[in-house]
Amino acid sequence: MALELVPLTRSEARKYVAEHHRHNKPPSVCIFQVGVASEGKLVGVAMVGRPVARKLCDGITAEVVRVCTDGTRNACSILYAACARAAKSLGYHRILTYTLESEPGVSLRAAGWDVDAEGVGGDPAKWASRQGPRAAAVDLFGNRAMPLGPKRRWVKML
After folding, report:
1. Considering only Cβ atoms within 10 Å of each terminal Cβ, which end of the chain, N or C, has fewer?
2. Using one digit for the tens of pLDDT, what is the confidence trace for 108-147?
3. Can you list the domains of the chain with their CATH numbers?
4. With helix as H, strand as E and coil as C, how does 103-132 read?
5. Which run of H or E residues covers position 5?
6. Would you call 6 helix, strand, or coil by DSSP?
């Protein structure tokens, strides 16, 4: 079963994430997105945007804000590698992403990414904005839409 990269619209990527991601909603904005298909069937997507953390938003850093697959072997690694190549082609100097500390990051290691920081993030409900503390993000059923707890930041220099 050969995997191939495929172009997608932002709407197609958001729809795939909404249907398949196990704990996050689709991001509302991104710079670009890419899909991976097997025998013509979409099996995963990645969406890349500006860094969510304001202090990391320096104009030369991109962030993979969502990766979602149906579990197809090697799909995540292919997507992370494609995001890095595309970001480099667009002039970015580094790309980063976050995983839960409970996630091993095998796909990121396979794509040549390194752990940059441990224990970052935390409880989104405690993040503050200019308007004050943010309310906890919940889905239609009252479940948290964002997982709680510290994250691991991964980076790849381009």
Report:
1. N
2. 999 999 999 998 865 555 555 565 555 555 444 444 455 6
3. 3-121+152-157 (3.40.630.30)
4. CCCHHHHHCCCEEEEEEEECCHHHCEECCE
5. strand 3-7
6. strand
